[in-house]
Amino acid sequence: MSNPFRIGVLGSGKGSNFVAIANAVAAGKIPAQVAVVLSDVESSGILNHARDRKIPAQFVQPGPFRTKLGEEAEREFVNRLRGANVDLILLAGFMRVLKGDFLRAFENRIVNIHPSLLPSFPGLEAWKQALAHGVKVTGCTVHFVDAGVDAGPIIGQTSVPVLDDDTAESLHQRIHTAEHELYPKCVAAIARGEISVAGRRVIWKKG
Question: Which residues are catalytic?
Answer without folding.
Answer: 114
